[in-house]
Amino acid sequence: MKNLVIFASGSGSNAEKIIAHFQDSTQVQISHIFCNNPEAGVIARAERLGVPCSIFSREEYKNGTILRKIQSLQTDYIILAGFLWLIPAEFVQAYPQRIINLHPALLPKFGGKGMYGHFVHEAVVAAGEKESGITIHYVNEHYDEGAIIFQSSFAVEPSDTAEDVARKGQVLEHRDFPRVIDNLLNP
Predict the structure, then answer these.
(1) What angle do CA 11, 150, 34 make, to 5 degrees?
(2) What is the rounded distance in angstroms from the CA atom of residue 68 to the CA atom of residue 84?
(3) Which of 42, 63, 109, 177 is deepest in the core (most CB within 10 A)?
């Protein structure tokens, strides 16, 4: 049995899709959600779905408390589903090629510090891009620079707003992220 934990900072729609995907699995379990935002919607989703959720501070994140908790859960993979903080080097060293992130654009475009959520979609529209999409990648010590695992794209129409781009991207996120994780864990 592979044990996954999810890190999230927001509403948790991707976390919910991942949990639902593995709900009846005999190979994979989602044992915990970690959240850095006490106002995040993912907390209520975790409670509703019966997945333990820990809210943590920046201090606990940086001083090793959270890494020790993850290790105590015998975690095999860390999944970042809308988690906005940079992953510390200690996490990357403890889980090499076992921390997976979803980015709402086609990396290497529109990645890096400050490029998340609506900021990404606004930048895509402002640049006049003809396509955008999602990137699922391994995490290293830098924002959005880890090895790419999977990309999926959609057309951006000249009339599309940032909200249109976000909606199109979320369809791919919900469809592809759980499946790609499953394929990585069960090749």
Answers:
(1) 30
(2) 20
(3) 42
* Cα–Cα distance for residue pair 56/69, rounded to 1 Å: 11
Q: Which of the residues 21, 32, 103, 121 is marked catalytic?
A: 103
pLDDT confidence of 186, banded at 50, 70, 90?
Answer: confident
Q: What is the mean pLDDT of residues 99-117?
A: 95
Phi-psi region of 97 (alpha: psi -120 to 50; beta: other; left: phi over 0): left
Q: Quick one: which of 137, 105, 148 has its CA closest to 124?
A: 105
Q: How far apart are CA 137 and CA 104, in angstroms?
A: 11
What superfamily does domain 2-185 belong to in CATH?
Formyl transferase, N-terminal domain (3.40.50.170)
Residue 103 annotated to the active site: yes
Evaluate the CA torsion angle 42, 45, 51, 56 in order and state its sign. Answer: positive
**Distance from C-alpha of 180 to C-alpha of 185, rounded to nearest angstrom:** 9
Cis preceding-peptide flag for 108 (omega within 30 of 0): yes
C-alpha span between 43 and 56 (Å, rounded): 12
pTM, two decimals, is 0.95
The position carrying tokens 């080097």 is 89
